[in-house]
Amino acid sequence: MTTEIAPTVEAINPELVTAGVPTHWYNLAADLPEPIPPHLHPGTKEPVGPDDLAPLFPAGLIAQEVTPERYIEIPEPVREIYQMWRPSPLFRARKFEQALNTKARIYVKYEGVSPVGSHKTNSAVAQAYYNSVDGVTKLTTETGAGQWGSALSFAGAQFGIDVEVWQVRASYDSKPYRGYLMKTYGGTVHPSPSDLTESGRAMLAKDPHTTGSLGMAVSEAVEVAANDPDARYALGSVLNHVVLHQSVIGQEAVAQLNAVEADGADVVFGCAGGGSNLAGLSFPFLREKLAGRSNPRIVAAEPSACPSITQGEYRYDHGDVAGLTPLLKMHTLGMDFVPDPIHAGGLRYHGMAPALSHTVELGLVEGQAISQHDAFAAGVTFARTQGIVPAPESTHAIAACAAYVADSDREEVVVIGLSGHGQLDLPAYAEYLDGGF
Amino acid sequence: MTTEIAPTVEAINPELVTAGVPTHWYNLAADLPEPIPPHLHPGTKEPVGPDDLAPLFPAGLIAQEVTPERYIEIPEPVREIYQMWRPSPLFRARKFEQALNTKARIYVKYEGVSPVGSHKTNSAVAQAYYNSVDGVTKLTTETGAGQWGSALSFAGAQFGIDVEVWQVRASYDSKPYRGYLMKTYGGTVHPSPSDLTESGRAMLAKDPHTTGSLGMAVSEAVEVAANDPDARYALGSVLNHVVLHQSVIGQEAVAQLNAVEADGADVVFGCAGGGSNLAGLSFPFLREKLAGRSNPRIVAAEPSACPSITQGEYRYDHGDVAGLTPLLKMHTLGMDFVPDPIHAGGLRYHGMAPALSHTVELGLVEGQAISQHDAFAAGVTFARTQGIVPAPESTHAIAACAAYVADSDREEVVVIGLSGHGQLDLPAYAEYLDGGF
């Protein structure tokens, strides 16, 4: 038959910027002019030491929580798993640009290609690895919409660790798909508050019909881990080691962007709930800024319903409702704050990562509150132009960007951090399209 | 601050084989020793001509249905959209290999990275484009689980075409998420049979409680398009032009595999419902085989509940229930066959693409029936090892591959076509894990 070699496959896709997988995590603390304030022991109010954290976290993660090192090598077993989907794509969103009638060049860094559909997997895999090194056989955690719970369930399956998840009841009841995903990976999931823990029973006694909150779920997961010598606790955001793991996003994005835009980014937009997504994306851009190689603005898009950066106080507060966690210096709406049940479950957290809060105080990051309506309006435009249905969390970053560049003649380079896809959040889109909000 | 450039991003990801986006579609018909039997007019039983098809399809697609050309250039507007997610990844599934205790090297070609999560987008974009060239303002179509309906809704949004979808009622009721996805892209969706068409009303009169079938939904969509001069009909599989568009999958896979495996593939596994996924994946591999460059076996994995290749007759039959479509020479279980309501909605079709049926007759492709239980068992193993939750359709290919390579010392190179992800099919996984089937 034919003997020709088909001349039909081009060498590169010009719309998809390629790069490799980071070999190290990047720690912005090493480059900041002032140190991030330490976490305090809830009893003594003194800075927590390794011994205080040992009941909850493995040694490798405790070290990362306070390390002054700029670069920390990613262990090979973690990198092997990252390579299943990393580097995540950075792409030019030309159709979205056209819809916005802008001369800005919009690049999207897309974490929805990870197995569970969000950036959460980046830290989940690292946390499961360090726990496996210490011989931990069970991990407990909390989850809101379920992105983190499913990411940790996947990571646990990779390292032979049982994962037990307390999911905020409002999400557990209304969005069961992510619970099914946790079970598919072999995880176990309970609605929170549950009657399985002392703190859960106390919350139920106070309000038997509570729809739960992330702070309540944290208390339950921490309590179970603290009382089981073979178990440890895993937190999906907020802490320094989680922020560190997410730096793979920004390192790739900087390298990918530099390959096509010599001057780097002018503005970087990301959504911020606990802060790990935005910190992971933006800290390598801040490295570039602090080194004088570029000068990007960083915008933290947060929901109007839970505006910890734009409306919260910067002070020490607990990470959970029961007050079991260390005191963290952060922007907070107060540990008892229960936000409206907006669809962006991952942004319904009363506080903000101490590392990110610190950069806000240093003037390196600015907050912007976005209404749920504006967020979804931007999400629908993005879906119809670029095809990807964004996670409700990510729509906040898209909306902030859209408002900034729409009908603009400024030829700026902007980056949107698209933290995940919204395929499991489609009922929220249906509600929006039906005029529900 | 720091002035060093971070040495933390590797040049390439060794686990992810890179290649470009095809510039042409590949037509296996040009290389076959015998022509694919023509479609026949349902009235005259003569081969259908362009005039017969004009009420349903635009000129560009009618030409592709009968073209003898080996390569057809992909129009630039289509290629631009392909570049949003193509080339799709080909990756080595090492963790799955370990779980299967095999020396086979398993490569996975993954179409779930497309905006709607499956291979269907490859043809949807092409079909919307050729319709837009002819000034068509509305497309009608059918869908089962909703992969095709959502793909066409996305494609319509790209070219300013209204899309109206008839979805098999069983799926419309039990799996609403893909309906929400169609609406998010701007499409309209009706359960089928509906009271909006003559054929739908006739089916409802016969059985008011019918859960519908793809054949019934085709009849409704064809009827509406045939009666509206501004509308045309779009079919998501079966026809030659659909198979042609899907050839981007296999062309990329051949190029990607050749970059790491000098002798190409030994066996290629894909799932087959209407046939476009498997044909798209395998026909470029058959090009290599017919040219003597490699010698792969091609396995069509189909559900035991709808075994058109392994149990059907090879004869002329209608593509729909009402007998409105041309007669197609294919492996068929009969146009009135209603398969059990298995979760792999995309595999519940009574017939098989004439192009693929023809290669089966020529001995180039072999069928293998897989039970739903075995399919999901393999899907869960794949999810826990590789992270990706496969579409129920794709689990059939994974199961066929797993059965072949498990506990084997043969150092073969096998390829699995992973046609899509199963994030919107998670209730089916939950049912399987609860022992439901």
TrEMBL record, chains A, B:
Gene Ontology cellular-component annotations: cytoplasm
Enzyme Commission number: 4.2.1.20
InterPro entries, A to Z: Trp_synth_b-like (IPR006316), Trp_synth_b_CS (IPR006653), Trp_synth_beta/beta-like (IPR023026), TrpB-like_PALP (IPR001926), TrpB-like_PALP_sf (IPR036052)
EC main group: lyase
Residue ranges annotated for the Tryptophan synthase beta chain-like PALP domain, each copy included: 84-420
Cofactor(s) this protein cannot do without: pyridoxal 5'-phosphate
UniProt-recorded Gene Ontology molecular function terms: L-serine hydro-lyase (adding indole, L-tryptophan-forming) activity; pyridoxal phosphate binding; tryptophan synthase activity
UniProt KW Cell membrane keyword: no
Catalytic activity: (1S,2R)-1-C-(indol-3-yl)glycerol 3-phosphate + L-serine = D-glyceraldehyde 3-phosphate + L-tryptophan + H2O
Superkingdom assignment: Bacteria
Pathway in which the depicted protein is active: Amino-acid biosynthesis; L-tryptophan biosynthesis; L-tryptophan from chorismate: step 5/5
Keywords noted in UniProt: Amino-acid biosynthesis, Aromatic amino acid biosynthesis, Lyase, Pyridoxal phosphate, Tryptophan biosynthesis
Subunit organization: Tetramer of two alpha and two beta chains.
Function: The beta subunit is responsible for the synthesis of L-tryptophan from indole and L-serine.
Annotated family: Belongs to the TrpB family.
Protein name: tryptophan synthase
